[in-house]
Amino acid sequence: MAIASGGAAAPVTSKLQVSAGEIIVDNVSKSYGTGIFEKKVVKGCSFTIERNKLTVMIGPSGCGKSTLIKLLAGFEKPTTGNILLNGKPVTGPGRDRLVVFQESALFPWMTTYDNIMYGPIARGEADQKARDLAEFLLDKVGLRDFRSKYPTQLSGGMQRRAELARAMINNPEVMILDEPFRGLDAMSKELMWEYYSALFEESHRTNFFVTTDIDEALFLADRLIIMSNIPTRVRATIEVNIPRPRKLADFFTSERANEVKMTALSLLHEEAMKSFSGGSKAAADFVDSYARRSEQKA
Ligand SMILES: Nc1ncnc2c1ncn2[C@@H]1O[C@H](COP(=O)(O)OP(=O)(O)OP(=O)(O)O)[C@@H](O)[C@H]1O
Ligand SMILES: [Mg+2]
Question: pTM for the complete prediction?
Answer without folding.
Answer: 0.88
